[in-house]
Amino acid sequence: MNTFAPDDLVLISPRYLAGAGMNKINDVIGPLVHLFAWPYDHDPRTGLLDIDSPCGSVFLDFDPGRQNGVWWTIAHHEPYWQIEFSRQTPSEAIASVTQALPQLLGDRRHADRIPLATESIAHLAKTSGWEASSTAPGRAWASPDGHCTVEHSTVPIHPWRIEHSVYDGLDTHWTATFTPEVPERLVAQFFTHIATSTPVERVFRDVPYFVQNLDDALITPVHRAAVNPHVHHAGAQLRRAVPRR
């Protein structure tokens, strides 16, 4: 049973269980605006945010008012492709995609600070312990705890789909979908930041309620750790893994 206060800062892994992390949303948009000078419009009343690439070929919008739960959309004009993320998608994984967009368009400023995924999703899944399976339309990979799945299919609308839920949803459900022309590098970029064992930081109240005491989630303190919080978390991961071998 976790005994954290609502305002406590914690580290949580696996990342796909962490929820969106509302205090991390600026990491998604900040680099585009401050490092690459992408123009933007923001409506403080609705929270709606629109960002366009300087060349006008890519646009990103954040709309927390959408009824379908899709808060983030990234689209490219020609060739047309689109990525959508629903509300509880971890911000760090979304940020890994948005921060890669300038390099995709040929702007390599700050490339040394924004590494791009170089491995295939199949290889990333295998090395991260995700279980592969064959499906009627293609291939699928499931996280070790079964909560997160990646599907690659011949379905023409969304050949790549990543989905997560605990207890059939209940504020833990999120999806990431990619249309056919999306560069696979961006899919791999997203998956790399979902599958890594490195924890993410959250305010405890922002961790989905049904994850807060979930056995599959490892949650450790940031401020009460006797050593570096990430070292403390890594030690807890190791202690948890030993009995399973």
UniProtKB/TrEMBL annotation:
<dbReference type="Pfam" id="PF03771">
    <property type="entry name" value="SPDY"/>
</dbReference>
<dbReference type="InterPro" id="IPR005523">
    <property type="entry name" value="DUF317_SPDY"/>
</dbReference>
<protein>
    <recommendedName>
        <fullName>DUF317 domain-containing protein</fullName>
    </recommendedName>
</protein>
<feature type="domain" description="DUF317">
    <location>
        <begin position="143"/>
        <end position="200"/>
    </location>
</feature>
<feature type="domain" description="DUF317">
    <location>
        <begin position="53"/>
        <end position="101"/>
    </location>
</feature>
